[in-house]
Amino acid sequence: MVVVGAARSGVAAAELLVRRGALVTLTETRNAFDGADRLQAAGVRLELGGHQRDTLAGADLVVVSPGVPVEQPVFDAARARDVEIIGELELASRWIRGRMLAVTGTKGKSTTTTLLGRMLTSAGRTVVVGGNIGVPLSAQVEASTAETLHVVETSSFQLETTTTFRPWIAVWLNLADDHLDRHPSVESYASAKARIFANQTADDWVVFNADDPVVTARGAGARACRVPFALSGRIAAGFAFDGEWIVKRTAVGTERLVPVGAVELTGRHMLNNVLAAMAAASLAGATPRAMTDALRGFRGIEHVMEPAGEVGGVRFVNDSKATNVEAARRSIESFASGVVAIIGGRFKGGDLRQLREPLSAGGRAVVAIGEAASLVRDALSGVVPVVEALSMRDAVERAYQTAVPDGVVLLAPACASFDWFRDYVERGHAFKKEVTRLKEKGRG
User: Fold this and answer.
1) 301, part of any domain
2) Cβ contact 104:156 at 8 Å
3) Which of these, 29, 128, 148, 229, is most buried using a 10 Å CB contact count?
4) Domain of 392: which CATH number?
């Protein structure tokens, strides 16, 4: 069997297959990667420096990492021989013994997945959180029991290579233009997301965003029972806000679940994630008390609307995970005024001009970074001043100078990080490092 790609999930898939007695070859375009020695010690054959057509064509099964596009010509010979080509998520799900709760969407997946895991843990369930964040599903198989609940963040790249993947509860948060550097169209991107409920039955559940017309339309074709949530509150049944309470509406009445005051997340758009997590947790048996306890003290995850400090009256917020235009727009809208937004990186598609409206309402300036700097300047000039920076240090310093004395420096890139950084995590850490440097410089 052949595993393609030595990222976190590829390594986990290779280890799972070896533990199950398979002869495994892992192919990788790089000449070295973390975990190579461990895999070789376990008996995995490594093929580095590129993916070989003959290796893939001769496999009984090909397992691809999410970052590897299966449309590449190198897979053609394998397809011609009818070799099954699946992703790590699909592979692992075939051996998982517990129930799976899967979360997808353009934005908010990680926060919702993490919060849902907290709620179920608070309810006393045995929970493992992972997938596209944290622990790959393949690394959860050995510990999986019939009582285990696997809360799994799922990306479009993972879902597009599924064939039998069937979550008990599927959560679809939203859909906006994203990953158009990989998917040929928005329709293709939406179809990949929709695979989250493709194999569900009437015994399963779909939790969907009733405020999103595309998600609502796609969900209408699901065989599972459908449960809506709506930040707008415009639903007769489902999960919504009603005054100072988060409620569940049914045909027989409205049940108060959690006081709004228990939510400590920054940004109105984060309330959407709270609703989705509560809907899924409630279906899985969590009580209002357990959900309230999970919300109190939860201020989000690293790199998602994360407070990064204050210098001289200027606040810094790290939203490095806002890697698409819609996520960046929601970030900017979270602040009434004084926003100096750091935007740019490797462009993934979408319309940067959608940021003009929130910037005109609450923006003070934009600092453009990375490969997309010229695109950012062309899209946003004329709404607020736009300056370009040549490094994260340069960007933070320029943004700070503009935000003084009372503004907000917001890292909301609307782009991938792969021009300057390994990933959004490294980008967020670089931002926070420069904020710390500013603090120390101020003390000096």
Assistant:
1) no
2) yes
3) 229
4) 3.90.190.20
